[in-house]
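Quick note —
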Amino acid sequence: MPSRISSQANNNNTQYNLRLQELKKNKIDNQIGTQRRIQQLRDDPVAAGHLVKYQSYLTRVNNFEKNAKTLSDQFQYREGYMENSIQIMQRIRELAVTGANGIYNGDDLKAMAAEVNELLGELIQNANATGPDGNSIFAGTNTKQRAFDVDMGNVEGASVPLIANVRYNGSIEVNKIEIDENKYIEVDNAGNRTFWAENQRLFGGRDATSWQANEDSVINVDGQQIQVKRGDNIYALVSKINSSGAAVKASVDPVTRGLNISTTDARQLWLEDVTGSALNQIGIIKDSSQRPPYNIGESARISGGSLFDSVIALRDAMLKGDAEVIGGRVLGSIDSGISNLVARTSKSGSDYERVQNDIVRNSATALNVTGQISREGDLDITKAITDEKMLEYTQQATLSNAGKMYSSTLLNYMR
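Predicted structure written out below.
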């Protein structure tokens, strides 16, 4: 049975195809305008999925590179102050060696003490340095505070108050900065490690052999939190401290039977009762109202000071004219401090080199990922322009045919 063809069929087909051509041309025009092949997810679902993953990864890589560049700048500033501090300490050591040879009188040593005092001030200035962002470089994570506070006092042999004590005012926490996928670099800016001269030793003066923890508690030893269980005795506590990973060594004193703790390198001890009062009960620290590091208990004795303590001791010995002290304990402390400062500077330089390698790697990775994004999402502009021109020709041909098909006008009926 033959099908009936409506008089509107040709018109409807023509209009449909014109709208279809306009839709295709509009899509290509949008692609050319944005230079992106994928306008909607349905254009290419697989490529769109890959594109989202690549763009997310590129954002992370760019953040890693930015983190590494920021760290690189920080390491440069920090290393500059540390290297300058080494030069200051080398000069101080020269003065110490000169003052210890015994051929200079008291007036000569006082003249040297004046220079040592000025070098001490410069050393403290380096330790309290701030970066371009205004943050303190050597205050750990307390970047908005001065790293070291200075106490002035009267010193024997001096006519004016001089620097008598330098106290650390920062923290020992480290920042972990992500420089690659799930890879972090630890940034240790604690000034009581960088500017420390000797291993610090604490000797507990209270017999702790009868001590037993009466509750579960947590103590902080050099930044490591240690769980103390109810019923633990002093030997269990020593074992937990030694196996905690903290840079300290604990033992029970064979004479006083108190708890002894010493650092394994030049740094200041950091002891705290986080919860409970285990360390306070055995006389190691004061109650929790006192914050570390200057919370050592009255019955405990401590030795091992900072670079500033060594320089202050040298200056005071020169003011007194005591060449024997200069050539003994003081010179040894200065040498130890220089050695630690050189080691810390070397570590900072190593961190800087590692960060530089990370910058190069992340930059190359970002370039590769950008290429992958371009492959999946960018438009082939030559092909797009060609397709657009073909659609224009097709549209013009369609309009031309439609014009011929419906050439009759009202004038044809007025003859």
